[in-house]
Every structure is written in structure tokens, then in C-alpha cells.
Amino acid sequence: MPLKPLLRRTNLLPGESLPSFLERLTLLNFYQNSSVLRWICDNSNKKQTHLDNLFRPKSFQTFSRLSQLTMISTQELFDASDHYFAPMLTPLGREKTMIPWTNEGEKQIVGPAILQRHLHCPNAVQFCSLCLKESSYHRLAWVPAVSSACLHHKCLLSNQCSNCGSSISIRELINKFCKNCKADLREMPSTYVGGNKLGMISQQAIQSWLSLALAPQVPSYFKWPDQPPIIMYQLLDKLFLSLLSCQKDWPELPGVFISLSKEVNQTLKTHIKMSPYHAFHLYRAAFKGIAFWPYGLYLFLDNYNLRNINEASYFNDAIYFNDAYYKVAVRLGAFGAWFLKAWKHQEFEFLLRAMVRYLASRTIDIPYKISIQFRDEPWFKDAANFELIEILGLTSFEK
Question: Do 370 and 230 share a structural domain?
């Protein structure tokens, strides 16, 4: 059944998220809450057997009904939703969640695992108080947990009311006040991080991979591999998880991670529960693993090497098992275990070449399957003669 457009309508604001747009539309039409819009959409289709989530729709029919109500195209509405990030956040090789989409075929949407780990929900959002001063609405760039800084104001995002500590919903952002203590969200203090050169470069690179910003301008010697954004993001995410996995056993991060020891709570367990402050510094440290490629990765691995195991026990077990896969997985921890799966994908050949050189230079046995498959390749033969020297090129980006 076709829906008549709402009498009071508005447009999507620059960079606005779908939930923010629907909340503004609710207020504009004097509805008590957004569930009224859902009721209108649901009752237009008598064949529907379950209620869809308007803030994160999972069917084309819902997008179509919202389009009829708002006079905004289904594509614009889809691009303002969390599903915009689905292609980038779905790990390589993981089954994609798809929905039928008119004659265009299908569109990928975010699955439960991505929602839980990577995206903030509309009832507990991140925000920039300086952006709210300019215009009070929720930006799509604040949805990913990996986005921890506002590139425009060069400050950390906030994820709670600084006055009472409560989580903030999108509705509260639009109303400008914390519903718990009535504090003005536009006056929340912000932490300037523009002087943290490496941190801001990492945030701009990450947000550019998510198609939220332009790529940062950096010196040629500092650049990361020339690979598709989805590959770079997934590599960075694995470096990040590797750091996170050993926090409880790593009270003082050495070498290039020295600044992290005083800035990150060692009890952090999950990605989504981090404050923007912790996420900013952890991703900054992980970003060092891809900057100045491949030497940034080698510095990362040297600091990460054998971090979570007893060295004597490792060598005893390695001799007993006599298995190079086991040695790499244990010695390089979570990152090593991931690499032993990732190298089989052609998209990660650049990483395979870098890792073979590293293993050879550090006299770590190269897994048999890798040796057999690539032993006749010139780059593989050259790896045996590669000497890893100390690289100090990252020091100018430490602050």
C-alpha cells in the first residue's frame, strides 16, 4: 500500500546518520517518539510478520516506506544507515549478510557480530560537543567505534555526559541536553589532540578507509602499502586486537609503544566498551605497525614477539611439536595465528612477502606450506639474504 508523504518533512543534513534524521522528523511532526513512524510503516504492509528496526532496517520494504514518507531516495537513506559500513567491516572470507534490493540485486548489511564489535548503538553514542554547537544532530562518522576523534576540530569524541557520566542517546543530542542531569551537551569539555601528529594521521587514514574523510597527506617514506582500504583496515584491526589481547600481561609496553603504558587501562577487554581516549591511543599504536612499511610492522613484531609466553616453555614445546606453524602462532601470538590463515588469500600477498622477510631475518622457521608453494619465487629466495636493521624513522611522528 503506497504511503502519503508526511506533511512536515526535512532533508538529511551533511553527514547525518539515519537515526538522527528520523529523530528530527519525529520532533518536526510533534510525535511523542520515533515508534510512531515505525507504526506508520508497519501498518502499511499487512503481510509483514515481524517488526523492523527503523534505525537499522533489514529490508528493502522498510527503506521504501521511509522513502515514501520522506520523499528521499532509498539509496540516500541506505547510505545514511549503519549498513554503509558493512563492506568495510566484514572480515575477508566471512559470509556476507545480504538483502534483496529491487532490480539492482542485493545489498550488503551489517550482521550481529559487526554491530556488537564495531558500531555504537543509537542509545549510547559518541559525539563532538564543538560540532553540536554548530548544529545539533548526530553524524554518521561518530558511529564506528574506531572513529575516536573529530577531524574538523582535532579533538577526541565524547561518549558520555561529563557532568553525570551517563550514556547519551541521539535524541538527547538533538535536544542538546542530557536527560539525566539536564547539562548542556554543547558545553561539554573537549580534549584537543591536534598536537598528536601520529594519532591524527591514524584517525584520518582510518576514516578515509571508511569513506568518511580524505586521505591524509604524509611524507613518501611514511606511507603504508598501496592496497584497497578494506585490506588496510582489516590488517590494522588485527594489529589492534593483538595489542588488546596481551594487555593483561603487558604492564609496560616497550620500544615504540612506550607512550601507551601510562595511557591505557590494562583491564580493557572489548572494543566497543572503550572510551574514545583509549581507542585513540590503541589505534595510534597499532597504526605504527603499518606506517613506514614494512619496517613499522617489523618494529611492531619485535616488541610483540614472545610477549605472552614463557620463552623456555615455548622452545621446549616447539622442539617437541617440531612444527613451524606452531612456532609462528605461539611466538607471534594472536597476530601470528591470524597471519597463518590470511596468507592463503591473494589479497594479502603483500603481507606474506613482508612476513617471510621478517621470519627469515629473525631465524624463525618459515611454515612448510609457505616454503613449498613459493620456494621458486625470486622474492622468496631473496628473503634468506634480508638483514633487518634498526629503523628510527618513526621517531618524528611520536607526538
Answer: yes
On whether the pTM is more than 0.90, the answer is no
| Residue 166 in domain | yes
Helix residue spans in the chain (DSSP H): 18-28, 35-42, 60-70, 74-79, 86-89, 112-118, 129-134, 170-175, 197-209, 229-245, 276-287, 295-304, 311-321, 324-331, 333-342, 349-361, 368-374, 378-383
Among residues 141, 63, 169, 73, the alpha carbon closest in space to that of 109 is found at 63
Give 272's DSSP letter: T
Q: Which of 187, 221, 253 is the last residue of a domain?
A: 187
> Domain check: are 168 and 291 in the same one?
no
Is the CB of residue 335 less than 8 Å from the CB of residue 242?
A: yes
Reply yes or no on whether the pLDDT at 325 is more than 80: no
In the chain, the number of structural domains is 3
Is position 176 within any domain? yes
Q: What is the pLDDT of residues 213-242, one digit of tens each?
A: 999 998 887 889 999 999 999 999 999 888
